[in-house]
Amino acid sequence: MKKIELLAPAGDLERLKVVLLYGADAVYVGGEKLSLRANATNFSLDELKEGCTFAHNLNKRVYLTTNIVFHDKDRKGMEEYIKEVIDCGIDAFIVSDLYLAKYIIDNYKSVEVHISTQDSITNISSAKFYRDLGASRVVLARELSKGEIKEISSIPNLETEVFIHGAMCTCFSGRCALSNYVTNRDANRGGCAQVCRFAFDYKDNDKFTLATKDLNMAIFIKDLIDIGVSSLKVEGRMRSLYYLATVIGSYRFLIDSIYDGTLTDEKLLEYQRRLDSVANRDTTSQYFNHLADETDQYYTGRQEVSNQEYLGLIIGYDEKMKSIILKERNYFKVGDEVEIFTPTGEIYPYKIETIYNEDNEKIEVARHPEEILKLPFDTRLIPYSMIRLIKKG
Amino acid sequence: MKLLGVIRDNNFLEYLDNGLDGIILPLENFSVDYFKYYSISDIKEYKNSTDKLLYVVINKMIFNNELDDLLNVLKELESIKVDGVFFYDLAVLNLVRENNLSINLIYNGTHMVTNSDTINLYYDLGVKGSYLSNEITKDEVLNIRRNTKSDLFILLLGNPVVAMSRRNLLASYFINKNKSKSDLITIKEPKSGQEFLVKEDKNGTTFFYNRRLNLSNVYKELVDSGINYGIIEQGDYSSGEYKELINAFVNFDKQKIDELAGHNRGFLYRETIYKVK
Known about the structure:
The structure holds two protein chains of two kinds. By secondary structure, chain A is α/β, with parallel strands linked by helices. Chain A folds into two domains: 5-296, Alpha-Beta Barrel (TIM Barrel), CATH 3.20.20; 310-391, Translation factors (Elongation Factor Tu (Ef-tu), domain 3, Beta Barrel), CATH 2.40.30.10. Chain A has ten helices and 22 strands. Chain A has helices at 13-21, 45-57, 78-88, 98-107, 124-133, 146-153, 178-183, 221-226, 241-259, 265-278; strands at 5-9, 26-30, 61-66, 92-95, 112-115, 137-139, 159-166, 199-202, 206-209, 214-216, 231-234, 283-284, 310-318, 323-328, 332-333, 337-341, 347-351, 355-356, 362-363, 365-366, 372-376, 386-391. In chain A, the strands form five sheets. In chain A, strands 1-2-3-4-5-6-7-11 form an eight-stranded parallel β-barrel, surrounded by six helices. The termini of chain A are far apart. The relative contact order of chain A is 0.11. Chain B is α/β, with parallel strands linked by helices. Chain B has two domains: 2-158 and 212-261, TIM Barrel (Alpha-Beta Barrel); 160-210, no CATH class. Chain B contains ten helices and 13 strands. Chain B has helices spanning 12-18, 40-49, 67-80, 90-98, 116-124, 138-147, 169-177, 219-225, 239-250, 254-261; strands spanning 2-6, 22-26, 53-58, 84-87, 105-107, 129-131, 151-158, 161-165, 184-188, 195-201, 204-209, 213-214, 229-233. In chain B, α9 packs antiparallel against α10. Chain B is globular, with a radius of gyration of 19 Å. The chains are: A alpha/beta, B alpha/beta. At the A-B interface, α4, α5, α6, α7 and β8 of A face α4, α5, α6, β8 and α7 of B.
């Protein structure tokens, strides 16, 4: 039986490398055209080519989101663009528009077509429709229960992809134009202003909110494997390197431990805590076990909290000083207890006793984001290792 | 252009006599985003009462446990010989094709009916009509008309649907506030000033724009372009007002329409943006 795929988002080339190194089996990215995250830093053709080469060298895959609901004028150059990105080496398109899906299926046999969650596939019959059209995979609507996912996943010759982590839309994907009406930004062409996170005036000076909590399916990964889902998708092409490294690394650990039968309750709890630590909103399993209800919603205007436990990205090693070189992200100081973690899953507990600045002068406090610093450490670490705060000193 | 009504009271025969060419009936349990729903027996009764056009809406997201019932109602609608079924979920198209049902389908993708190619593909798949999105410009409407063979439907007058959620957002809100529940409220986005009607029923929550869309200013152009069907919703108009409106479209009296419906032209001249620098 094929092992379930862990599918990660990447808003740029660096994120692509990070998520693949941290254990994603495949990555989804947006190009410069036809992508629903029009305001993310999307991939140029050169970057896409480099990303595909990087992924394929690791025996991993790259999917390109071309999931806008296009208007006639967006049609210009579409065929050329499709050919260009296929030439870059992508493995699949994630498509929403039926015409575009069929165009790719009819003209390019070397590349897969996955139907976007934007199409809100909620039943066996519509899933079969897409399979018969030639799609190899459907990304299911986020409004489905375990039983419903299982039934759709039983369709022969069709893969199912399910969101497991990240932000949720309040409305059915594709059935929301709040952004169009409030901000004139087209939600279905990548301009979504996330109006569902705004607070609205309601009578008696009250505020009406419709924002949802985020999704976290860590404790249900085994269920998703057991019911035959093909791919587990993490949301968040615009998320930080640290967030992506932590989330992807955690799910990689959980999936592998489930497959090799070593996942304990204690470890599951530990990784749940790790996932919670990078979340900037509360999380639930949304529709998986029951219809989403009042416990899955927010009732205050602003829901995000900032996360300051990410201390730095390790960018090199100073052999002479036997020190790791890092780029600072958040304040830390001598006395803090931290963890250094690597893309391959190693975790080193570490107490900060000495900090050097770029001129090799000792400092007590690191307070300037982007500053290059050094910490004594005996071992050279692989690129994209990171440091997180465990306990302030 | 044929005029179709979406009504909220029981006076459909009067409206048909007044100039509507047909009516659109949202099917209970299988449609969302409306204020009044009809059973199969209601639809039969309507069909037996008039020779005018009769369309049915099946636009909810369909879940696995509803597929058998969906097939049954599609068979019933085939036997009733309704003039068409507006659909959102592709399960409807798939079931009609798999079972060789003789039903005229109209693609009703709400915000997703925005380009000629996709409409043409649906046409090739046997879907002979498309209900255009409210969020496209007049030029886009006319361009689609020029480039498709499909029958085109457009909302001439009514409150546009803005969003639909499976969640019971009003129930959740009122539970949290420990207040008695209302199934219909009005909310306002403070910065833009835009108001929305929020309505909840057993299928979830729908957001409607709280200003009626009124395309009276391009009505003649739409007629001349060959848009086939225009939809006029009763909304909260009284029976008398609604008849006046229908009359005003039939005898085209723009001033009267605007007097009754205001001047919100929606996105006719307002192109949405999606890249923000």
